[in-house]
Protein 1
Amino acid sequence: MQAEVYLDAIRANATELVDAAERTTLDAPVPTCPDWTVADLLGHIGRVHRMAAGNAVRAPEDGFWPGKEIEIPEPAARAAWVREGADQLAAVLDRPSEQPASTFFPPGNVGFWQRRQAHETAMHRVDAQTASGAFTPIDAVLASDGIDEMFTLINKSPRRKPPTGDGESIHVHCTDVDGEWLARLGPDGMQVERVHAKGDVAVRGGASDLLCWLSGRGPVDHVEVIGDAEQLPRWRAITTF
């Protein structure tokens, strides 16, 4: 996807995220993130945006900056803080994708942050809208790209070990835009191919519904399931973040 698409997604989803937060109370629970309130969600996304902006202008050889020292303001100030941070992030990322940047795994370039923050912001927009009512679907093309990125990140997450198994497989198939993947669990992690192939279980549906289900945000009855449905809870546990 083009960098402009990612930047537009960051801006639009950040605006919708804060708008949704302002339609409810700061202490409202976030059903899709059970340990969080809306205030917690705002604090998280505001910090993540600033962390990403800091790393986007940081040389790869300087190492990844986790941004733990970023101070989160009091709950009442967080909506404005998130709007400001999203604008700053989009401005920082408005540069050539191939420009070097510090990331937590390759590619070490600005394009990594353009893609990662577009999907981070879109998914947390879903969380905010769920807290204040119903969420609107993620753009289908963006959602398909989000599934692709998710499968790329799973083996390389700095927060957990790669999932392993004995050959169990899942086929994920978008029905509204291009996007098919076969993921298989092996002793060394998960292998993913972008192919049309049979898995032990298959899930088919719109890209937004698939991404939301895989990420722990949507019900399985919004997608079509073919094959061994008993495997679905394990796959959802692997792909949820």
Protein 2
Amino acid sequence: MEQQIQIFTDGACRGNPGFGGWGVLLKYKGHEKKLSGHEPFTTNNRMELTAAIEGLSAIKVEGVKVTVTTDSKYVRDGITQWINNWKKNGWRTKEKKLVKNIDLWKKLDDLLKRHEVTWEWVKGHNGHKENEIVDNLATSAITKYLTTLKVSDATLFD
């Protein structure tokens, strides 16, 4: 059986919109790589998309088989069910509104041309080992960012 790269992703937000973070765990043949980052004012959906984009962008060779596991139905359904109609309709929804987060959806769509990608969904905060790891990466990225600002959770919305 051919080896696949496994990517686990998660996004988090304190406030929505608010301070955001994303986390990625890549696994391949016993090797692991963890990535994370933050944004100062964003939404949870943007962080979920960013995690998938960053995970796929970390793969330096083209044409590999990849499984992306996310706890975001927005990302999984968007990329597997909705995106073809959005593109056909000029990146508009069936209500004729511009697709939200269009910039990130376009980046993700471009990355899918490089690999053979399968999407899996897992329930978040449900004991899935890798999902817990990427959740911790995403939330820790927010905490680290807030620490550099000398802001605590208690003062975010005071």
Protein 3
Amino acid sequence: VQPGELDKLEQRIKSVNAAATVHRTENAAVPVETVLEVGGFNLDRAMEIDPQFLEPEYPFEWGGIYQLEAGSYELTLEEGPDPAMQAALVPAPAGTAEGLEVAQELAVRVFAEEEKPLDNGETMRPDNTSASAGRLYRLNLWETPLRFTVQIDTPGAYGLFTEHHPEEFNAVLTKDGAPLQPAVMHAYKPDHEHDEEVSSVGITLSGDLDPTRLNAWLGRVLREQGTDIFRMKGVLSIKDDPRRFVFQGVHMLFDGRPDRPWGKEPRTNKLIFIGRNLDRDALTEDFRDCLA
């Protein structure tokens, strides 16, 4: 092996584990004490790399306690790294660190329940009728401006817990347009990791679609990009069909069918792709070419 190649190998090892010690040798001629009892795990070093190493993992990344009067509030967001975000609103005994601890245990139980999809403009509220005194919402972040109503019937302290940190979406709870600050908040160690290569592409387009062009485009997308598409779903308006067309797909598997009639609901097209190496502009333009 050439010396230059050894340098590259050592750099690769360091990129995987910056704390690793590299010993250069021939025919494994290295003192045995250098490879035994090396203290591969060191708590102090682990804490330096990840200050939250000893914290339990939670199904949410952030929680804050707000002191709220009865009335309507608004949760505003901007586009972020995901097309949806789970959120829960639960009562808290007080806007203190101790109150946050109580609320976070309620939120853990709520996040284990079935989620209720919530589209832009719809309302979330604490569910005082359930045993967990909360409800898990999935905020669909398909189109901007993103605004969700938060309805409070009983004044008090409430904990808002979100799947992702609010900074990722510039999420703010407001009252009459003025931002509210939580009395206490905490960023939790999540039970998942972000994949920087994974992104989402949401498309909203008015007009009816030509079914022949649509089928050809979807077939090409599945053939050429299916391995990179983790999830796709949408609601489409097909020319001369009074019904909504709904579909979902995972990689190269696709399932689509007519749904309920549009009725008085405005006919439109909404679809979203989640996956790797997604070209937003190309997907949008190709989909636009499917219009009748």
